[in-house]
Amino acid sequence: MLEATHSFIKQIGKKLNLSEQGIDRLLKPDAEHNFDIELKSGQKFKAYRVQHSNKLGPYKGGIRFHQNVNLDEIRALAILMSLKTAAVGLPLGGAKGGVAVNPKELSRAELEEISRQYVRHLVKFIGPDKDIPAPDVNTDQQIIDWMADEYERLTKDKSHASFTGKSLHLGGSEGREAATGRGGVIASARLFQHLGKPKQKLTYAVQGYGNVGSFFATIAQKEQPDWQMVAASDSRAAVYDPSGLDAKELADYKNSGKSFSDFRANGTRLISNEALISLDTDVLVLAALEDALTESNAPKVKAKYIVELANGPINEAAYQYLTHLRQGSVGQASQPVTILPDIIANAGGVIVSYLEWLQNKAGEHWPETKVNAELKKYMVKAVDHVYKSATSQNLSLKEAALAIALKRLTT
Ligand code: NAD
Q1: What atom of ligand 1 comes closest to residue 209's alpha carbon?
Q2: CATH topology for 179-345?
Q3: I want to staple 67 with a disulfide (CB 3.0 to 4.6 A). Which of 102, 132, 136, 402 is the partner?
Q4: Does 96 participate in catalysis according to the annotation?
Q5: From the centroid of its chain, how far is CA 2?
């Protein structure tokens, strides 16, 4: 993923005639923190925080707990954060953190121990005006609450502005949990509007029905009645019903801790994740993890639009294939896929994180309507800017989003 991110940035830099020196500088993070967390039980875990760039404001980025976390992945995700905050016009920089741990194998007490130790290692380098971490994969409000509490205990800072994604009673923002999914709906709707909505009903499939994917679908169900979800997956299986699935029912099912592999309901059937990717829907929403589409499965994609809600879900070869090389089954070129890129599509989370930070700094608590209205303003402005740049400079949406970000970061 790191290689793909670097190579894509270099390509765009060249295309835009940005200085090679400036691009090389941008590829290097400002600081890397690489340490071990050792629990009382003796178990050891690798932990990271990569602070990529604070040119536009304090570092900002999530912390993930996942067994596959490694330094290169965190480096790539940190660059993506800098590009994202720049592309949507936030006065924030980019960072990312992670611990190589499978949280499902730990007790609640051990998770708290890891969370607090993570902060003790980094306390000198983070804070409301330095680096403001947030949740990411497998890190929920509770984990952020432990981290924020540890930071406040060590520093006596009472602003609550050191972390975002906190629970409401600790200074969290209304609307934060749903923000990435909501932002994805706003961005997709705006893009379809620009493209001249292709048809009355749009069918879509969601790969990864976790926090982001399930909020995307439940908000779309309420606010975009013409969109119909026909499939949704978790890491084990996908639920499929060509006549439409109930997003709320599936979200309640997943929130009860069960896997789709045990889901049974009239009219639905279980299919594999690979089968979900190759469904003949209008839109494929990628909301699981990075590298979900590679050269091996991209040729199976039939959707006309892809929404990248996960970070980096399409690798470079798959991206090239989908946007340039896709061939019809009898060898004729078929329409390339329109991809709404991650740094725009999933920016809702960092936008509402920014709004949470602003509220904490001002000692305010905004109603959800105000938060959602502000989120919408940022998302619409970002999509409009990217769409306009893409059409005026003959770039793909991803190239245009990167171009906007790179200009802000290198000049
Ligand atoms: P999550 O852990 O809540 O959900 C991920 C979902 O994907 C789970 O349902 C999991 O079972 C499923 N999954 C994992 N591997 C899969 C596979 N191979 N096939 C199908 N499904 C699979 O995580 P999340 O917070 O929803 O984040 C999802 C993605 O969105 C990540 O890439 C994350 O970096 C990105 N993201 C999250 C936020 C946020 O606010 N949470 C913000 C921006 C980007």
Answers
A1: 9
A2: Rossmann fold (3.40.50)
A3: 102
A4: yes
A5: 16
